[in-house]
Amino acid sequence: MSPRDVVVVGGSTAGATVLRELRSHGYDGRLTLVDPEPGTNRPPLSKAVLADASAEPSVLMDHTSLDLEHVRAVATGLDHASRTVFSADGGTHPFDALVIATGSRARRIAASGQTGEAVLRTVDDARRLRERFAEARSAVVVGAGFLGLEVATAAAKAGAAVTVVDVDPPLERLLGPHLASSVCQRAATLGIVFRRSGAELVGEPVRGVRLEDGEVLVADVVVSCVGDEPVTDWLRDSGLEIDGGVVIDDRARTSLPDVYAAGDAVVVRTGDGIVRAPFWANAVTQGRVVAASILGQPVEDPIVDHYFWTEIAGTAIRVVGPVPLVGDPEVLEDAGSGSGLLAWGSSSVVAYGIRRSVPKLRAALRDL
Ligand SMILES: Cc1cc2nc3c(=O)[nH]c(=O)nc-3n(C[C@H](O)[C@H](O)[C@H](O)COP(=O)(O)OP(=O)(O)OC[C@H]3O[C@@H](n4cnc5c(N)ncnc54)[C@H](O)[C@@H]3O)c2cc1C
């Protein structure tokens, strides 16, 4: 029997997808959203919003047309036996289906009590960074993943001398050596310098980093882009299986009956073990799977969608297929200077510095 009382905790990309999909597939029961914030579409935060204040409003979501009750408070606990979620405003929210979509928070590396570590996860973070980059002559970014390089791009374009520090080779864990090296060459044309080292934040408030060889890089702005941590602390005493994120199966079911989860808060149990892929497309595909599962409909979407995009040093990169991209690509279309449509075996296709829609990329992958 379909549930009549669905509670969704977290109303950004994953939670909003569940809410929209439930209503568009005819769910007419009660919908309660528990989230202290308006939903946020995060990818533009490190791109348009870091560059331009006028892009801020476009990232905020509006759920008002969905006929739901929005409880503007954090969820603080789950009692599965009584099928109840608790919120910090003293509210109790009974459900017969629960969706966990509390996302993740930026990982921090400051010492205990040390202030001034900048990160980028929220609109407020993006606003603060944009304002600081406008004044900064120098910036250090700790972490050379895609987020670190997007932030480094914004700082460099605002006029700062930027150093990116990482213990691993920049971008390789995600893009593999071929693309990583090409992207880093493009970043270098903006003056971005790469240092290979561990980094410890120094100063109170933070005003630089100490590298492993003892050298201290002092900067006007220091930003940590060192990954994220699923927000699961509110579920601590719930009995839910958590293993680096809420564990879900291919129907987005958790270990507790009638409890589903999606997005950055989850890890997926697959035949190959536990997978975590905190990308926008997965928040969407998993949100769709949750809605289908709740409604007892066939699940058509995969639980992990191998698609992500980024934009570094003015170069748009769209990847369809699993990463990292190991070895050299086959060039399917050459747009010059390394740009073009690239393929890694028959498993991954990349639009590198060229415009190509996702359906066209998926079609190119099928044709391989
Ligand atoms: C700056 C930035 C840039 C990115 N760029 C890209 C990109 O280019 N390409 C890409 O594929 N991916 C990108 N990502 C990743 C992508 O944005 C995430 O995968 C996606 O936002 C995950 O959505 P989510 O709904 O699971 O989580 P979130 O967006 O984190 O949303 C979680 C929601 O839960 C709420 N919440 C948290 N705790 C509680 C609680 N206890 N009670 C109630 N509500 C709670 C929060 O307020 C929030 O609304 C980027 C991420 C960031 C931060």
Descriptive terms for the model:
368 residues, alpha/beta, FAD/NAD(P)-binding domain, 3 domains, 5-stranded parallel beta sheet, 5-stranded antiparallel beta sheet, 23% helix, binds flavin-adenine dinucleotide
Major β-sheet strand ordering: 3-2-1-7-18
Average pLDDT rating:
96
Secondary structure tally: strands: 25
Helix-and-strand structural type: alpha/beta
Tally of helical runs: 7
Largest sheet properties: 5 strands, parallel
Classified in CATH, the superfamily of the largest domain is FAD/NAD(P)-binding domain
Measured as a percent range, the helix fraction is 10-25%
Q: How big is the Rg? A: 21 Å
Ligands in the structure?
flavin-adenine dinucleotide
Number of domains: 3
Distance between the termini: 43 Å
CATH architecture of the largest domain: 3-Layer(bba) Sandwich
Shape descriptor: globular
Low-pLDDT segments:
none
Question: In short, what is this structure?
Answer:
With 368 residues, the chain is α/β, with parallel strands linked by helices. Helix content is 23%, strand content 30%. The model has no long low-confidence stretch (mean pLDDT 96).
